[in-house]
Amino acid sequence: MAHQVNGLHHVTAIASDPQANIDFYAGVLGLRLVKQTVNFDDPTNYHFYYGSGEGGPGTILTFFPWPGAARGRLGAGQTTATGLSIPAGSLEYWADRLKSNRVDVIVQEVRFGAQVLSLTDPDGMVLDLIEAGDDQRLPWTGSDVSIDKAIRGLHHVTLTETSADQTVATLETLGYRRIDEDGNHVRYAIDADAGYVDIIVDAAASVGRVAAGSVHHIAFRTPDDAAQSQWLTTLREVDVDVSDVRDRQYFNSIYFREPGGVLFEIATDSPGFLTDETFEALGTELRLPPWYEPYRSRINAALPTIDLRKATLARV
């Protein structure tokens, strides 16, 4: 039987304006636009993937940009912050870069012994930039952020819950264990470099509303279809209402809600983002799964025009 997931795979959130999303995540944060495709459940809207050079599992942030979407509300039953790993000593660089780009910084503090800078994206989504000096993942080197400052990938997610016991039990089923506590944050981990899950318990918190600026779901890693099939069996054996396998073209997925309300996914590492584009061409053109290709012209006509110049800044 599968005994643990292998950490975080990706985080998927909701945005409003697709151009503002590209300009911020590729232009300001210096992530690579690894893939531009459509929401497989609503092909009239984009689905953007950002991450490292080839979009390795554990480095990916994805967005459904819905033009005109209402602003969400952070609260209980939500992922209320997403942490991104940056090199030790780079926090001041990021503070200056964000200030020069008029990005709202919420707080700069020490958490779990590491420097953290919390900010909001154009839709109000909370991001934590955290200095993680032991992170050896290679960043994207095609932006104007130098390699010694560039984001390495996902570091943690923070869940806000009115009660944590059942959520913790679900995390333990996935292989997570409590390792630390700092203030109102309790940290759970599998491996130090695999992506932490932090929980904040706030019994008085109102229920959040998922819309623009909100995390839609968080995904955990499993290596392949066989391991995912084991997870499907394991979860159903403990009475989790889990979906059948969904083909997401670059990975396969199963979905379920933890008892507090956060949508979880278990996604396969394979086949990855190089299945339909070369490394050099990643993210430069709209890619569609085979079942939508006959409707490409209609889909293109429905999608907003986007400018990729800030996503393709080549360093020389």
Question: What does this protein structure show overall?
Answer:
The relative contact order is 0.22. The longest helix is centred in the last third of the chain and has 13 residues. The chain is built from 5 helices and 16 strands. It is 16% helix and 36% strand. The chain is of the alpha+beta class. A hairpin with an 8-residue loop joins strand 3 and strand 4. The strands form 2 sheets. Strands 2-3-4-1-13-16-15-14 form an 8-stranded mixed sheet. Strands 6-7-8-5-9-12-11-10 form an 8-stranded mixed sheet, with helices on one face. The protein has a single domain, classed as Roll (2,3-Dihydroxybiphenyl 1,2-Dioxygenase, domain 1), CATH 3.10.180.10.
